Structure prediction request, 714 residues.
Amino acid sequence: MKHNRILSGIIGLALLAACNSSNPVNDKPSSPVWEKQYSGVWKSTVNNPADFNLLSVSSKKPRVEAIEMLADAPIPVDQNEITAFTKNGRTYLRFPLKKEEQLYGFGLNFKTVRQRGRIMRLHVDHYGGKDDGRTHAPVPFFVSDRGYGVLINAARYIDVYAGTGVRKDSKNQAIPTDRNTNHSWSSRPYSDNLEFIIPEEGVELIMFTGKNMMEVVQRFNLYCGGGFIPPKWGLGFWQRTPTLYSDNDIRKEVEGFENKNFPLDVIGLEPGWHSKAYPCTFEWDKSRYPDPKGFAQEMAQKGINLNLWCNPYLWPDSELDKKMKPYTGSHTVWCGTVPDFTMPKAKTIMQDHLKKHQLDVGVSGFKIDEVDGFDVWVWPDNATFPSGHDGEQMRQTYGTQMMELTDQIYRERNQRSYGLIRAANAGSVSYPYVIYNDYYSHQDFITALINAGFSGLLWTPEVRASNSSEEWVRRMQTVCFSPIAMINAWADGTKPWSFPDVYPACQDVAFLRMQLLPYIYSTFAQYYFEGKPPFRAMELVDGYLVNQQEVKGQLDATANPYAEAVKKEVKDQYMMGDFILVAPLFSMEDEREVVLPQGNWYNFYTGEYVGNGEIVTVKASLDKIPLFVKDGAILPMIPKIRQASEWTNDLPIELRVYGKEDGTFQLYNDDGKTYNYEEGEYTLVDLSVKGGKGTAIKRKGNADYTMKWKFMTK
Ligand code: GAL
Prediction:
């Protein structure tokens, strides 16, 4: 990607710096110039950024028309307070922070939603239990509640000091307090700085603005290519089968789902389908799958889509490895070569192989594993690659490279795919992939689901195993309210009925997801058309005003010697689309607090009023996940189906109306499997309720449905 380089004051200074880094003048910060690109999108180029960056890995282009649909919004910060300088091969950036300002984003964090006060090094890795920047998708994009956000478009490990450093020359001096005598002393005085270090002499910055954080996120998503609409089958239920399963084992598995009457659209094949794994051959194991094509056809007839696990490291002297050798890096992973997919030739070799051996066979998508880390497994940073990109650049973008190359071959066939990936970054937004990992805290999985929405990511809180029936059903409930409803039984062989006492509840929630398909699908249409994340934090909802204070910590000589404040934040409830608030319960809980934004909210199941702009305590039996619906909502639902393919235009649609307010909903539908929707082939019906009466007006398309209104609130 070629960049529009702006030579501002800072850049002049920075260029001087490049000539003589010992000149003290060179590290004097000055303000970058922001050049408007589109409505609410500005770009700034500090010094001389590398051509290779997080967005250049992807062929996706900004969705300009959709961006321009959003009302323009000015830069809400004093641009003089944004500063940058380069020195000794690094770029230093500073953004001002107001006292009450909150920051969100920075990719897939698991423990916190609010990011102010954190220090991170954004580094693609398997999540290790700490929000320190090492995660599957450490996207260098932050959103401020002042109504702006910035993407630091560098494929580098970026250091972030999110409101920790206190500068001597600050205009907003923190007031020293004497710890001896003043009980309000804090180990963290006010910092008005959001600071970054990028290990490169120059960087491209893209700023997004909006009337609220939602618009900032929408612009970021649309700039990175926009969201996407998964194939309909992708929104049905997924079962990943144990390692070394054969075609016959899978036949039995599928039969089990039929007999037990449990939804099933996708079967995931784990290690065992490749003739060799870790690294991989990408050739079918003939003993377990003697006739892959016949098998895939048989599955397709049963409405089952196949998804294949892989890691992209190549088994020595396999067919792929032989062709790929000249295009691989200096180091190996599990003795397998590491293709450099930034080289067109490497990309084509891989694509040709996948087309011939997997897509032609009838495979619907991939689960791309191990593209994140761990350090001791993957290549070190000193690895070299034939394209000239270094180990660090490859680490930050390998997930995106794999998504790009697989996305292209499905698009060539005008066939939608939906898959799983363990690493992503900015630049991954519009690829049909969902992130997962090996970590397994249920609570943290929900926080990850929430955070994903700030950075153009999707996350599945996959279900694997459980210590109790209660935990099992609670996990099953949340996964059904996520981008991919899936059991990943690769190690444990679990099934939806593994805990028979809660099986009816698991069945209920899986069928409820299927009933909600028109709602979920229309929500994904918003992701594509408007860039709105389908699963999102409460902070992105209008009228969400919860007071999230810091609570003074208790002094403790070992656990908390500086009486550090404890953050109280809401990180366990979220929105699915514009209207459904999901408030999961976890094991050992039968009640919880739910923060309701302003406006009336209703119980999804009964239509009863629950509250308005307040914190309510709700109780829920084991068989229900607490769900709340906004006043004026119209939720389109279909009868219970087991597979997405049963969702045809002949199915009657029930339009459930909640509350008393007038409301509208755009019911979206298309063929569910091709990219023709991008060419305008879809049906849109404007649903509205006014004064207690519902109307449906078709705005576009050919499909006709039978619809029935159901007023839930008496
Ligand atoms: C892990 C992955 C699991 C499973 C396993 C198979 O890396 O996270 O979901 O696929 O590999 O070996």
Remarks:
- The first helix runs from residue 9 to 19.
- The chain has four domains: 35-223, 232-500+509-525, 535-576+580-630, 634-711.
